[in-house]
Design a protein that fits this description.
TIM Barrel, zinc, about 500 residues, transferase, five-stranded mixed beta sheet, tRNA-guanine(15) transglycosylase
């Protein structure tokens, strides 16, 4: 059991948590974004990140510091916090990507972690192998074995209060990711980064990213704080949080700014193509795109980077409020509609509704059914599962419309797409208080029909009658043969039943 991470509020698999970082004597609220700091090229001073953006934790590269003589000497002499001018928590990356892609130098986990400890890092990282997507299974398994050895090496080191990362690798093989996560969770390490997903995000393979993260989450315990390595674009943060990720790192705010790219929650735009800013942050509220284009390159980059951070942190605050309000999935759906690849990711997320349901709170804010995908949300699955617990009378009328009590039936229950049937006593219970469209769609009606099937199967002695309006033929096909289906007009309506 890890006592340095605590979940306070939850929605879907997302949570607002508290990550205690002993060496920094800090507690960081999650979900949290860690701006990536290149010590050789500061776009925004770390002290400003804390003062103006509320940054509680950042990440920098220990390998770059170690291999740059002037930085190495300064870090060893002053300590990392003094060198960067930042008194919050600092995570250091081991430079695994640089070591695997660009360097002939061999650095062991023991060497790099001892260096991270010596310069005052608060969370260190071993030398894992970031296996890219779509490699052969043989390569993925071989490199995963190397990574797991690195975790064992890290676990054996004495690092006092410094927390240690346990990266989860496995390429695009869900079973390897799940096994790797299970192995990592069984160690005494502290934070669990899901690595090598940047190529998936760069190629807009958000559905594959979801499968990768979902597999890793199945292997990790609920007390494991999860870091999604390289994920910091505001467009995808809500999706990643709903999957159960707690920490993110962003180099995009600076890298994109150097290329004249402007981040939004709906994607990335080129500054040269903007006539108006769709944002009211301090940068955009005081300038026009033309003003920003007229700045010198260094100033333009800095101001764009500041905007990129403002919009990213604004989205994180919006996500936290959505978790508190219980409507995180509604926010995910709104973001998904901003880009087809994000919608693929949202649909992939709902493929794991059973996994989300295990962590999703039983009661929360209003359920809004806004699309066909709403029929696949965890709340609908949970209601269907609970239909098995409900007892039914001998003669039961299920109706889409309110009708009065009638002597022809022992009871009258509502049928509400996408949930299906429920007794009046539950009408004011979540999620049956849902706001749903008057014009229900095929998916919602089919889901309601599945609810009817579940109830009927659990109560073989009850005679069921169902009255609905013009449901889609695919939904009607799902109704069991022993249910008498009649049009609404067949039921005498002298008033309306309570909802």
């Amino acid at each position: 059991m890890r006592d340095h991470f605590e979940s306070r509020d939850a929605d879907a698999a997302g949570r607002i948590g508290r990550l205690e970082i002993p060496r920094a004597d800090r507690t960081v609220e999650t979900p949290a974004l860690m701006p990536v700091i290149n010590p050789n090229r500061l776009t925004i001073e770390p002290a400003r990140l804390a003062a103006e953006f509320g940054v509680e934790i950042l990440i920098t590269n220990a390998y770059i510091i170690r291999e740059t003589e002037s930085l190495r000497e300064q870090a060893l002499d002053e300590g990392l916090h003094e060198m960067l001018g930042f008194d919050g928590a600092i995570m250091t990356d081991s430079g695994s990507f640089q070591l695997s892609e660009y360097s002939d130098v061999e650095v062991t986990t023991a060497e790099i972690i001892e260096f991270q400890h010596a310069i005052g890092s608060d969370i260190g990282t071993p030398v894992d192998i970031p296996t890219p997507p779509d490699v052969s299974r043989e390569q993925a398994e071989s490199e995963l074995a190397t990574t797991q050895q690195a975790l064992a090496d890290a676990e054996g080191l004495d690092v006092d209060e410094m927390l240690l990362n346990a990266p989860v690798q496995g390429s695009t093989y869900p079973d390897l990711r799940e096994d790797a996560a299970t192995h990592a969770a069984e160690t005494d390490l502290d934070v669990f980064p899901i690595g090598a997903v940047v190529p998936l995000m760069n190629s807009y393979r958000y559905d594959d990213m979801v499968e990768t993260v979902a597999a890793a989450k199945r292997g990790l315990g609920a007390d494991c704080p999860v870091h999604l390595f390289g994920a910091g674009h505001p467009m995808m943060l809500a999706l990643a949080v709903a999957l159960g990720c707690d920490l993110f790192d962003s180099a995009a705010y600076a890298l994109y700014a150097r290329g004249g790219r402007y981040l939004t929650v709906a994607g990335t735009q080129q500054l040269d193509e903007l006539d108006y800013f769709p944002c009211s942050c301090p940068i955009c509220g005081e300038r026009t795109p033309a003003d920003l284009r007229n700045e010198d390159d260094e100033t333009q980059t800095r101001l764009l980077a500041e905007h990129n951070l403002h919009v990213t942190f604004e989205e994180l605050r919006r996500i936290k409020q959505a978790i508190r309000s219980g409507n995180l999935l509604e926010l995910v759906e709104r973001r998904a509609r901003g880009h087809p690849a994000m919608y693929d990711g949202y649909r992939a997320l709902l493929d794991h509704a059973d996994q989300l349901e295990a962590e999703d709170p039983v009661s929360k804010g209003t359920f809004f059914a806004t699309s066909a995908e709403s029929a696949r949300r965890p709340e609908v699955r949970r209601h269907h599962d609970r239909l098995n617990r409900l007892s039914t009378p001998d003669r039961l009328l299920l109706t889409e419309s309110g009708v009065p009590d009638t002597d022809a039936y022992d009871a009258v229950w509502r049928v509400k797409p996408p949930f299906g049937p429920f007794p009046r006593a539950l009408a004011e219970s979540y999620p049956l208080t849902a706001t749903v469209p008057d014009r229900t769609d095929r998916a919602a009606e089919c889901a309601a029909a599945e609810g009817v099937r579940t109830l009927v199967a659990a109560n073989p002695e009850t005679a069921f009658t169902l009255t609905v309006a013009a449901w889609h033929p695919d939904a009607k096909k799902r109704i069991p043969d022993r249910v008498s289906v009649e049009p609404l007009s067949a039921i005498h309506q002298s008033g309306s039943a309570e909802d």
